[in-house]
Design a protein that fits this description.
The protein is mainly alpha-helical. Helices cover about 65% and strands about 0% of the residues. α7 crosses α10, α11 crosses α13 and α12 packs across α14. It starts with 15 loop residues before the first helix and ends with a helix. The N terminus is likely disordered.
Length: about 280
């Protein structure tokens, strides 16, 4: 393989969203018609965005998630070199691939993302209404815990309109189902002594849980009333505070305070977010 060519090292161990983004980036890179990664680096520098060849290679192969600025500059360079018609995709399509890419490469994260989508759909029921008064119990809760969906997850929004009580009830119901599934999964990993896998699970959960789901998960961990489950709740809060935008952190803190009655956890989340 010549130095200017893009490799295909993004194999099965790269999560599917990250792999899709790498394919998009590689398609854009080919439009540059550069002879080496060093040449590509010079093109980026000409746009005021310096990147070394090794870093560019890791972005193109899906090993490292690039900042959005890199993706935008690569798209602009491709359009400038080949023209929009030859690039074959618009910025909206590129951005969609970027937004769908997993933030981490942990082995469980993309599976968790798909599982959470299945839990949301099952909790909503076939007609879009909440699937039962107590989704943490009964056959439905047990069945959906193991469900794996085939399509990417979409974040379930925290209800903003206080007047829509039906929507609020449905979202809270779905959040409890998802929290129950997460707690059960954490318990299984703990029983098998998989501490590293458990940490990966919590890291992955922090990346995909909505604020309401995060608050529900913390409450569910506390209901286990064990030292380990309390530690899991604290770890989830710290990761969520570090990895999520301020709006999500504030919404999760509000959910802990008003929805779950966990003022100490709400304070801990905000304190962790402030560093």
């Amino acid at each position: 393989m010549r130095a200017g060519q893009v490799g295909s090292k993004n194999g099965d161990d790269v999560p599917p969203g990250r792999r899709k983004l790498a394919e998009v980036l590689q398609a854009l890179y080919r439009q540059l018609e550069v002879t080496s990664l060093a040449d590509a680096g010079e093109r980026f520098s000409s746009m005021g965005y310096a990147k070394d060849p090794g870093q560019i290679s890791r972005y193109l192969n899906g090993r490292t998630l690039p900042p959005q600025g890199f993706v935008r500059v690569l798209f602009d360079l491709a359009v400038k070199r080949s023209g929009g018609a030859h690039v074959g995709m618009g910025w909206a399509e590129v951005q969609e691939a970027y937004d769908s890419a997993e933030r981490t490469q942990c082995k469980q994260c993309f599976q968790l993302k798909e599982e959470i989508r299945a839990l949301r759909e099952a909790a909503a029921g076939p007609d879009g209404s909440a699937g039962g008064s107590d989704p943490e119990a009964g056959e439905q809760g047990a069945a959906v815990t193991e469900a794996i969906a085939s399509s990417p997850a979409t974040r379930l929004p925290v209800p903003r309109d206080e007047g829509d009580r039906q929507l609020s009830s449905r979202d809270a119901s779905a959040a409890r189902v998802i929290a129950s599934g997460l707690v059960n999964r954490a318990g299984t990993l703990t029983a098998h002594g998989s501490r590293s896998a458990l940490l990966e699970l919590l890291q992955g959960a922090a990346g995909v849980l909505s604020p309401g789901e995060c608050a529900a998960a913390v409450a569910a961990f506390h209901r286990q009333e064990t030292a380990e489950s309390a530690q899991f709740a604290d770890t989830l809060l710290r990761i969520y505070a570090r990895e999520r935008p301020a709006e999500d952190v504030m919404a999760a803190a509000l959910g802990l305070l008003e929805g779950q009655g966990l003022s100490a956890d709400a304070g801990a989340l905000l304190k962790a977010a402030l560093g």
